[in-house]
Amino acid sequence: MTGVAEVIAGVHRDEWARVVATLARRCGDLDIAEEMAAEAFATAVERWPVDGVPPNPGAWLTTTAHRKAIDRLRREARREDKHKEALMLSGPPEPAGAVEDDRLRLLFTCCHPALAVETRIALTLRMVGGLTVPEIARAFLVSEAAMAQRITRAKAKIKAAGIPYRVPSHEDLPVRLAGVLTVLFLIFNEGYLVSEPGEDAVRDDLTTEAIRLTRLVRALLPSDGEVAGLLALMLLTQARRPARVSANGELVALAEQDRGAWDRSLVDEGHALVRGCLAAGRAPGRYQVLAAINAVHTDALDVRDTDWSQVVALYDQLVRLDPSPIVRLNRAIALAELDGPEVALAELAGLPLEDYHAYHAARADLLRRLGRSSEARAAYDRAVELTGNAAEVAYLVRRRDQLAR
């Protein structure tokens, strides 16, 4: 029984998006697709322990969900158009995997620019990731009712606005794909350093799900450099996860991490993706450059071996692609290792980041290195005030208190 339950859990993880996507393409209704997929999995929970796991679980689930959708539409066939809709579904469904880009269509639908970013994230986690509404609500610290309403409104907007269930045209694909990658990156970042107070420092369920969904996009768009870059960036960042929080719950800065604890398999995979991007010979995008920066960091077995000149050169390239204040902040932090803290501090002057905790944390570290302790203490105080993550607060408080001693 336990073995079957584990199989069902694995099949849910692997097949949920495929079943929902196939059904959504056939009936054009995300509500029906989601509900019938859930019913199919519920039927599997009842029947597989008795009948055994079918040879092709995905095909079994797709067929079961498809039949349930037909029954549902026929029961609701109070109008002729509903009846026609049901008849359209009456043909045999394609076997799971026959139309591989169904999941890609679903992902682009969930990440449509007509939806607010937070709504895109929630809808993607539910429809493509298969997370439950309570799981998504917990991840973003809202009530289950509020999250359910958010997802319901999003599906209703997709239906009312006639948002097409398809991959964008070749001309629109770069812009639309960028939106999908942004959603996946935001999911990963929220998991890697949880922003809300009172929560765990890291949410492995969110980082793992973001990586899984990005692998899915990578499998469907294997030649896209930015997809490969984002996956590499996630893998190289996740590789450092075992060394990122100390035993007493304090954030461990990159320079202080035990590099022997890093996940070398993830590092190797990330490096291979970065090398593949370079070998393609195309001008890199933002995620590829970020991945390359992380590749330089994870290539050094000791922080003293870091090639800071290469890191700064990559940040120079990134600034040309994305001249945002946060990118310039990170460039200044790297520049401090080459030209010293005073030069980096001058780079930070005037950046519009007064409400960003990492800006004040960076200033505090630079001021500390210059021996300007009272100014550093004030910067630490401001960083602590703006930080929600408990592990990061513990790290900043310790660094601040060391100044007093």
From TrEMBL:
Cell division as UniProt keyword: no
Keywords in alphabetical order: Sigma factor, Transcription, Transcription regulation
Domain of life: Bacteria
SUPFAM superfamilies on file: Sigma2 domain of RNA polymerase sigma factors (SSF88946), Sigma3 and sigma4 domains of RNA polymerase sigma factors (SSF88659), TPR-like (SSF48452)
Residue intervals of the DUF6596 domain: 176-275
Keyword Transcription regulation included in the entry's annotation: yes
Sequence ranges assigned to domain RNA polymerase sigma factor 70 region 4 type in this UniProt record: 107-158
Pfam families linked to this entry: DUF6596, Sigma70_r2, Sigma70_r4_2
Gene3D superfamilies: 1.10.1740.10, Tetratricopeptide repeat domain, Winged helix-like DNA-binding domain superfamily/Winged helix DNA-binding domain
RNA polymerase sigma-70 region domain mapped to chain residues: 18-79
Family: Belongs to the sigma-70 factor family. ECF subfamily.
UniProt-recorded name of the protein: RNA polymerase ECF family sigma subunit
Species for this entry: Lentzea atacamensis
